[in-house]
Amino acid sequence: MDGAATRSCAREADPARRFPIMPEIRINGRGIDEDDILREMQYHPAESAAAARESAARWLVIRALLLDRARAIGIDAADEAAAVEAVIEREVDIPDPTEAECRRYYDGNRSRFRSSDLVEAAHILLASAPDDKPRREGAEARARTLIESLQAAPERFGEFARAESDCDSKRNDGRLGQLSRGDSVPEMDTFLFNLEEGQLSPIPVKTRYGIHVVRVDKRVPGRELPYEAVAERVSGYLKEASWRRAFRQYVQLLAGSADISGFDIASADSPLVQ
Fold first, then answer.
1. Which pLDDT tens digit goes with each residue over 63-97?
2. Model confidence over 116-140: pLDDT tens digits?
3. 3-class SS of residue 206
4. In 3-state terms, what secondary structure has residue 32?
5. Which of 176, 184, 266, 268 has the most Cβ atoms closer than 10 angstroms to its Cβ?
6. CA distance 66 to 85
7. The dihedral of CA 70, 76, 81, 86: what is its sign?
8. In whole angstroms, what is the distance from residue 88 CA to residue 80 CA?
9. pTM of the prediction?
């Protein structure tokens, strides 16, 4: 490889070059290094690298503001993380919500406090990796054939599962038992919680594990939970929501009296803290 090609590859590999050139971020005369932003990005998963970078930069700006505040009020901590925690604990204090506030929130949001929907289901798994195109296509074709056969003779599901499934559930005619949302991969959940009771999926279900023939045997709708069963959860939710609002306001107050350039924290429309 010649020198020009080597330099070209180096530019491609340099993560800093994945983003447009941004103005230097400075807080009260001190700069935030681009390398620090790139390292921080791993803690800020997002839909795109640009969004992750913005989130990482935002947190570094907030941390710098908190560290400046810690110094201003005389917090002497062992390290920066401890100083950040200490200043937040001292200056962002939210009282616990009252019983009346919790009950009022519960009464206005009863649909949020239900037990999980459940389904009893069965499947036939034809294992194939997503990157194994020939095997994947063959599994999908076989799954379509099985579905056609089961539409004509649904009582043969257990027979086909025992003979062809690559899942241990074949020992139990493909039955998976009771499942709640999240017990399976999202692609499977989409079908499990949209099929009617007793319905066989009319098309194969594709997941990272392979191609599935899926049948829902029973649906058990979630039920509304009484206040006493969720009181602690309601209280925790309200306190967390109040804390986030208070923290946002506190950071904006710090930002209002700071000298910040290269980043407009006041215009951020995503959470200020993860």
1. 999 999 999 999 987 789 999 999 999 999 888 89
2. 899 999 999 999 999 999 999 999 9
3. strand
4. strand
5. 184
6. 9
7. negative
8. 12
9. 0.57
Burial of 103 (0-12, 13-18, 19+ CB in 10 A): middle
Query: In residues, how long is the chain?
Result: 274
Residue 209 gets which letter from DSSP?
A: T
